[in-house]
Design goal:
The structure is a single chain. The chain is an all-alpha fold. Helix 1 crosses helix 2 and helix 1 packs across helix 4. The chain is globular and about 30 Å long. It contains four helices and no strands.
Length: about 80
């Protein structure tokens, strides 16, 4: 579920093919996202899942799998 929500936001913001997105996909290298794109994706995920991610934690994310793990961790505390 988390991966699906994240993928949906990535597709929406970056206009990429959802088939291109795996847990190993990097935001900057593979998806050519800049920091503003990543910020918009994270805001979209926060809104969709009604969570709040720590900015410092978000800065450490380099790929989709790391984002999923961070979101799972936050949701467990919710």
């Amino acid at each position: 579920m988390i991966f699906d929500v994240l993928r949906e936001k990535i597709v929406e913001i970056l206009n990429v093919d959802p088939k291109e997105i795996t847990e190993e996909t990097t935001f900057i290298g593979d998806l050519c996202a800049d920091s503003l794109d990543v910020y918009q994706i994270i805001i979209g995920v926060e809104d969709a899942l009604d969570i709040s991610l720590d900015g410092e934690d978000v800065e450490t994310i380099s790929n989709v799998g790391e984002a999923v793990l961070l979101i799972e961790k936050v949701m467990e505390r919710k």
